[in-house]
Every structure is written in structure tokens, then in C-alpha cells.
């Protein structure tokens, strides 16, 4: 208290000091005293009021605590009295059990009385419901079925609620309403039949389909209500939940699967095109069904059923399963192509899923592949393997068929330009074309692979073709009377080579975007080389045929008979011209090469006749006569081959080959020379013009002259041995293939 008093005095001193800081404030001391007295009186009044209020509150609290204590004592006494009364009434409660049972029985009887009308009418309702189901009045039948189920479920629920353990009564109720489950099953069967034919029903009688959907919706609502009550009471009526909506989609899915599988009307044994027909029927059915579903069925189902989306998924899954089944079968090559074309192209094309009547509900981009990439890869591998075997067999068969034509007694056919040909190139490339067109329907990658395969097999085929053409020529040379049309068919074989070349280029240009793709280009030079070799061998065989006929007349050249007036060259010209009338059926550029080669060989054979020393001129007159005859015959040959070359020029591929005949003229000039002293100069000129001429050729030529001295021969030979002349790049050798009969130079010099 003393500390408080000191703090109060100190505070008062500070307040007084604050009020009396100036002298003029002393005049207001009395005023200050009265103001502070009022404040003090006010504070004391508030303090007294607060203390009084606290005292009143304490007094009230004590009074309430006293009352509460009295109440607790009263309650304690009352509980003691109740406990005493309860102990005394236990026996009385046990004696009321009969009353309780009577109350329960009364409740059951009350429920029975309430449903008595429905209970007595159950057999009649069952008969009516059965009749309505048979008549197809499904909505009315379902209404009566709902009444039956409602009565049964109500009774069973009351029984369950009153005595859940009383199974005897529950069984009795269930047995009395036993026909109800049968009616439900019969109605469900009718619903499923309608749903199985829904795509037909929706077009003929959409009201019936709507009724089915309404019934299913009613049952779904009842299922939901019963399941909600189960959570509260634990009671579920028999046969619930029915889940008819789920069963509906199961029925639709089974119907879609059956419809897809049932479209196969044929087998491979009965129809080679069974798979094409099967896939086309599937395409038509699926497209028609989805259009009907999109335009009509969606109007019969609630939006939340998403019936079109679900049907689309069902069809897609059923198709995928069916395609997997087909892919697992032992398919032939054409069947694999049909399947892959349908799966990869047709299914996603405007003929099916991209059809405008399905847009925009069907988004092809969201559909899973009908076949997995692995299955597609396996099918493509099988197809390529089978195709390889088939192409080999087809090519072999085509060649065998062509070989049979070679021995026919009739000439081969000619094309629109008159060139002989066989059907082999057309057959081969028609086969290639068909396979490439088929492969292109599947994918660009497969098309390229098939093209590579065709060209590879073509390479092997041309090697066999070359061998067969060679055998054909050899067999003819063993018996030139057979086959009768050998020349014409050999011309056709030669022409086929050019046709093959053009067809290969055309095929690659049509089906190959990039020339270096897949290593295709390197195969072209190889095939061109084989074809040129076949054509060259064919031309050689034809010329061999010509020179076999000319052999007798060529042997007459440069003989005594020839000098005395033989017409061997006339016959040679006629024979060559006759053969070349047939050779006019040879295509360019082989005709050009053949004409030039025939010209060269005739000249070479003429020169060979000179070098074989069949005659030795005895006098200047004989030399002059022989040389002039050689010049005349050279001009005769020149005229012939100019004529043949002019035909080639008219066909667009001739050239001037007069230089061959000039060789005969040059040799004739050496023979005709009258001044032996100029012989060295003339021979030197001959050697410079024809660098492939050898010393044995010069020796034979001097021997034919018959007047060269030993020294002159020696001088000419030594000069020629000093170094041969250099040939020009365009020079065609004529003498290198001419063999002089075995007579050494020493003997010639004698």
C-alpha cells in the first residue's frame, strides 16, 4: 500500500507541476482544485458501482449453486425409485411376449390384407401378361410384369423387415410368385429378338424398337432404386439387378459378330474369288448398317446410350477379329493381296469409313488398325515368298510355251510395223504389270519391292532365255531342215530383245519414282548386256545360215573357174538379198549391225579367197583380167550393200559402209599393177590403209600375182617388219580374222 501511495503522490506532483508552470496559472489554482475534486468524485462513484455489481453477481451464483445441489439430490432419489420399480417389473415384461407376437402377426396380416387384391389376382395377371408377350404388346406386358414384381417385392420386403430370419415365409411368397421370373425371362427373350433384328426393325417399325428401349430404361431405374435401398436395408429382391442395359449391348455385340462372320458364302474350293466376295459383302453390310445406325437408330435411343459410337466400336472390333482369323489361314498370294488391300486401303477409304454419309461422326484417324503391324509384316513376307515362287514358275512356263512356238510350221506373228515377234515379252510384262498394280494398291513400299523382285527374276530369266536360244541355234545347225521357220523365229527372238529393253525402261519409269531406289538401276546394264548378247548370238546365227548357203559359191572365188567366167558373185548377191528380205523384219538397231556385219563378212570371205592362193596369175593379161573382175565384183557388192543400207536408212538407222568394198579394190590394184618396180610402193600404201594386214597376207598376195622376184619379196617383207602402221580409232579390222594356209614365208619367197 505504501508503494501505491508513493506512486500516487508522485503522479499528483507531476500533474500539479504541469498545471503551474507559468505565474499566471496561480490565479487558476482554485479552478484546478474544483475540477480535480469533480474528477475524483466521479471516479469514486464508478468504483463503488463496479464493486456493488460484482457483489450482486457473486450472491446470484451462490444461490444457483445451492439450487443445483438440491436438484441433484432430487434426481438421485428419482433414479433410485426407477431402479427399484424396474426390478419389480421384470417378470411382468416377460409375461407380455405373447402380446408382442400378436402385434407382429397383426402387422403381417395387415400387410396381407392390404395386398390381398393383388395376391388373389396374380394368376390372372400372369395369364394376361403371357398373352400380351405373345401378341407383341411388350410395353403393356412389361407394365403388368412390373405390378407383379412390385407386389412380390413389397411382401418380401415387409417380411424381411419384420423377421429377416424367417426363410419359410420368404420361400412361400417367392414360390407363389414363381411365374413372375419366367415371365421376365420370356419378355427378355422377346426384347433380345427385337434387338438382334434392330437394324431391320428400325426401318420397318421403329416404334417397336423404341418400346424395347423404354422397357430397358424402366428396368434400369428399378435396378438403381433397389440398389439404393439395399445400402439402407440390405434387402434385394430375387432376380435383381437385371442389368438389361448391359445385356442389351452384349446382344448387339454378339449380333454384329454373327453378321460379320455370316457373310462368307463360298470357300476356296467352290470359288477362287471367295475372299474378294466375302470382303465386298462385309464392306457393303457394314457401311449400310452404320448409315442406318447414324440416321435412324440414334433417334430411338437416349443420348447417353451413345448407340452409334458403341455400334461403331462393335463393328470395328468384330472386323478386327475377323481379319485376324482370315490372316491366320493359309492364304494364297492373291488372297493376301485382297486382304491387305481391304484392310489398309478399302476400310479407310470413301467406300467405307470415309463415306460422306458417316461424317463427321466417324473419324478414321481415331480407329485402331484392323491388323497389327506384326501381322501385316508377316503377311507381306509370306506374299513376297509366294510371289517369288509364282514368278519363277510363270516365267519358266512362259519360256516353255514360247519354245514350243519356235518349232511350228507357221511363221510368227508380226507387230503393227511388220516386225516378227512372239508373245513372250507381252506375257512376261503383262504378268509383271498385274503384280505391280496389285502391289500399288497396298503400299508404295510393297510396289517397289515387287518391282525389284520382278527385275531380279527377269535377270535370271534372260540368262535361261539366252541358253535356250543358243540351244535352238545349235539344234538347227545339226539339221538345217528343221525347224521349218528357223530364220523367222530367230528374227522374232532378236526382236524380243529390243521389246524386253523397251518394256523394262517403261516399267521402271511407270512404277519407280527414284531411279536409284532400292538398287534397281544397277540391274539395267546387266539385263541390257544379256539382251544384247542374245541378239548378237541370234544375228550371228542368221548370218551363219546365210554363209552356209554361200559357202559353195565363196569357194569358187579366185579360182580358174572364176577367172573363166563364174557367176558366183551374182549368186552371192541374190542369196544375200533374198535373206535380207527376211531380215528386214528385224528391229533396229540390230538390223543396222547385221547389215554392216554381213557386208564385212562377205568382204572378208572374198579377201580370204584371195589369201588362200587358189590361183596364181601367169601373165600381165591374166592379172589385169582378174583385177578388173575383182573391181567389178567389188562394185557389184557395193551396189548390193548400198541398196540394203538404203533400206536401213529409210528405217532410220543406216550408214555408209563403202569402205569394206574399197579393200577389194585396193587388193585388186596391187594385183593389176604392171610395173613391178612400183610394187613396193603399192604394197606400202595398202599396208598403211589397212594396219591389221600381216606379212603372210602380203606373201599370199604376191604369190597370187605370180611375178614378184625373190629380192623384191624380201625387200617388201623386211620393210613391213620395221613397224606396223597405226590404225585410226574408226578403223574396222578386216584381215586379222583371215588365216593364210600353212605355208611359211620362206616357201613363199621361193
Number-wise, the strands total: 0
Coarse structural class = mainly alpha
Helix content: over 70%
DSSP helical segment count: 28
Secondary-structure element pattern, one letter each: HHHHHHHHHHHHHHHHHHHHHHHHHHHH
> What's the main sheet like?
none
| Uncertain segments | 649-656, 744-750
End-to-end distance:
179 Å
What is the average of the pLDDT values? Answer: 82
Overall form: elongated
Write a brief caption for the model.
With 750 residues, the chain is mostly helical.
Can you walk through the features of this model?
This protein is mainly α and 750 residues long. The protein is built from 28 helices and no strands. It has helices at residues 2-19, 29-94, 97-114, 116-120, 122-135, 138-162, 167-176, 178-196, 198-204, 206-233, 244-261, 274-295, 307-328, 333-346, 373-406, 424-442, 444-478, 486-511, 523-554, 560-565, 568-583, 590-611, 620-650, 658-672, 679-689, 695-705, 710-721, 745-749. The longest helix has 66 residues, at 29-94. The model is unreliable at 649-656 and 744-750 (pLDDT under 50).
Amino acid at each position: 500500500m505504501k508503494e501505491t501511495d508513493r506512486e500516487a503522490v508522485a503522479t499528483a506532483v507531476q500533474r500539479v507541476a504541469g498545471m503551474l508552470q507559468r505565474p499566471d496559472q496561480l490565479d487558476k489554482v482554485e479552478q484546478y482544485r474544483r475540477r480535480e475534486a469533480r474528477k475524483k468524485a466521479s471516479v469514486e462513484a464508478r468504483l463503488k458501482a463496479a464493486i456493488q455489481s460484482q457483489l450482486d453477481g457473486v450472491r446470484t451464483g451462490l444461490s444457483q449453486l445451492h439450487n443445483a445441489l438440491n436438484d441433484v439430490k432430487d434426481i438421485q432419489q428419482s433414479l433410485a425409485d426407477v431402479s427399484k420399480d424396474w426390478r419389480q417389473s421384470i417378470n411382468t415384461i416377460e409375461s407380455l411376449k405373447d402380446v408382442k407376437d400378436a402385434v407382429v402377426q397383426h402387422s403381417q396380416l395387415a400387410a396381407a390384407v392390404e395386398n390381398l387384391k393383388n395376391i388373389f389376382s396374380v394368376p390372372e395377371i400372369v395369364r394376361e401378361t403371357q398373352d400380351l408377350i405373345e401378341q407383341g404388346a411388350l410395353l403393356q406386358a412389361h407394365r403388368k410384369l412390373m405390378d407383379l414384381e412390385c407386389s412380390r417385392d413389397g411382401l418380401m420386403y415387409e417380411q424381411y423387415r419384420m423377421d429377416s430370419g424367417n426363410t419359410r415365409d420368404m420361400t412361400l411368397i417367392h414360390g407363389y410368385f414363381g411365374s413372375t421370373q419366367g415371365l421376365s425371362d420370356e419378355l427378355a427373350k422377346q426384347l433380345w429378338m427385337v434387338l438382334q433384328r434392330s437394324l431391320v426393325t428400325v426401318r420397318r417399325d421403329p416404334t417397336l424398337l423404341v418400346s424395347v428401349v423404354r422397357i430397358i430404361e424402366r428396368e434400369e431405374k428399378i435396378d438403381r432404386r433397389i440398389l439404393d435401398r439395399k445400402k439402407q436395408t440390405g434387402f434385394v429382391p430375387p432376380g435383381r439387378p437385371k442389368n438389361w442395359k448391359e445385356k442389351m449391348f452384349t446382344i448387339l455385340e454378339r449380333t454384329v459378330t454373327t453378321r460379320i462372320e455370316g457373310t462368307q458364302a463360298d470357300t476356296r474350293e467352290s470359288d477362287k474369288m471367295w475372299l474378294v466376295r466375302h470382303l465386298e459383302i462385309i464392306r457393303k453390310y457394314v457401311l449400310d448398317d452404320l448409315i442406318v445406325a447414324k440416321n435412324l437408330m440414334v433417334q430411338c435411343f437416349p443420348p447417353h446410350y451413345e448407340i452409334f459410337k458403341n455400334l461403331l466400336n462393335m463393328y470395328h472390333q468384330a472386323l478386327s477379329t475377323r481379319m485376324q482369323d482370315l490372316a491366320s489361314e493359309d492364304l494364297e498370294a492373291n488372297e493376301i493381296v485382297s486382304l491387305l488391300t481391304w484392310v489398309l486401303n478399302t476400310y479407310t477409304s470413301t467406300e467405307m469409313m470415309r463415306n460422306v454419309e458417316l461424317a463427321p461422326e466417324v473419324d478414321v484417324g481415331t480407329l485402331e488398325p484392323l491388323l497389327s503391324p506384326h501381322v501385316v509384316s508377316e503377311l507381306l513376307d509370306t506374299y513376297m515368298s509366294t510371289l517369288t515362287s509364282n514368278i519363277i514358275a510363270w516365267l519358266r512356263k512362259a519360256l516353255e510355251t514360247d519354245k514350243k512356238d519356235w518349232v511350228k510350221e507357221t511363221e510368227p506373228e508380226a507387230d503393227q510395223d511388220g516386225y516378227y515377234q512372239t508373245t513372250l515379252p507381252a506375257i512376261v510384262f503383262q504378268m509383271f504389270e498385274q503384280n505391280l498394280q496389285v502391289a500399288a494398291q497396298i503400299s508404295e513400299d510393297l510396289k517397289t519391292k515387287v518391282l525389284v523382285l520382278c527385275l531380279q527374276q527377269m535377270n535370271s530369266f534372260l540368262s535361261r532365255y539366252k541358253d535356250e536360244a543358243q540351244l535352238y541355234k545349235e539344234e538347227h545347225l545339226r539339221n538345217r531342215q528343221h525347224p521349218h521357220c528357223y530364220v523367222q523365229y530367230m528374227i522374232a527372238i532378236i526382236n524380243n530383245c529390243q521389246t524386253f529393253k523397251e518394256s523394262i525402261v517403261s516399267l521402271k519409269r511407270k512404277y519407280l519414282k527414284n531411279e536409284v531406289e532400292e538398287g534397281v538401276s544397277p540391274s539395267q546394264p546387266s539385263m541390257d548386256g544379256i539382251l544384247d548378247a542374245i541378239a548378237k548370238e541370234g544375228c550371228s546365227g542368221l548370218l551363219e545360215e546365210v554363209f552356209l548357203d554361200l559357202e559353195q559359191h565363196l569357194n569358187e572365188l579366185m579360182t580358174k573357174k572364176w577367172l573363166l567366167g563364174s557367176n558366183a558373185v551374182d549368186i552371192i548377191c541374190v542369196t544375200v538379198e533374198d535373206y535380207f528380205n527376211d531380215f528386214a523384219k528385224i528391229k533396229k538397231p540390230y538390223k543396222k549391225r547385221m547389215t554392216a556385219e554381213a557386208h564385212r563378212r562377205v568382204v572378208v570371205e572374198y579377201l580370204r579367197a584371195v589369201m588362200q592362193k587358189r590361183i596364181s596369175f601367169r601373165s600381165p593379161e591374166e592379172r589385169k583380167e582378174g583385177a578388173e573382175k575383182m573391181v567389178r565384183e567389188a562394185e557389184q557388192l557395193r551396189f548390193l550393200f548400198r541398196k540394203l543400207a538404203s533400206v536401213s536408212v529409210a528405217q532410220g538407222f543406216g550408214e555408209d559402209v563403202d569402205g569394206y568394198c574399197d579393200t577389194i579394190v585396193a587388193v585388186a590394184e596391187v594385183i593389176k599393177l604392171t610395173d613391178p618396180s612400183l610394187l613396193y610402193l603399192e604394197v606400202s600404201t595398202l599396208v598403211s590403209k589397212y594396219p591389221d594386214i600381216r606379212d603372210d597376207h602380203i606373201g599370199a598376195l604376191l604369190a597370187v600375182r605370180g611375178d614378184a622376184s625373190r629380192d623384191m619379196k624380201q625387200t617388201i617383207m623386211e620393210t613391213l617388219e620395221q613397224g606396223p602402221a597405226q590404225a585410226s580409232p574408226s578403223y574396222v579390222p578386216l584381215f586379222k580374222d583371215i588365216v593364210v594356209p600353212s605355208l611359211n614365208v620362206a616357201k613363199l619367197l621361193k
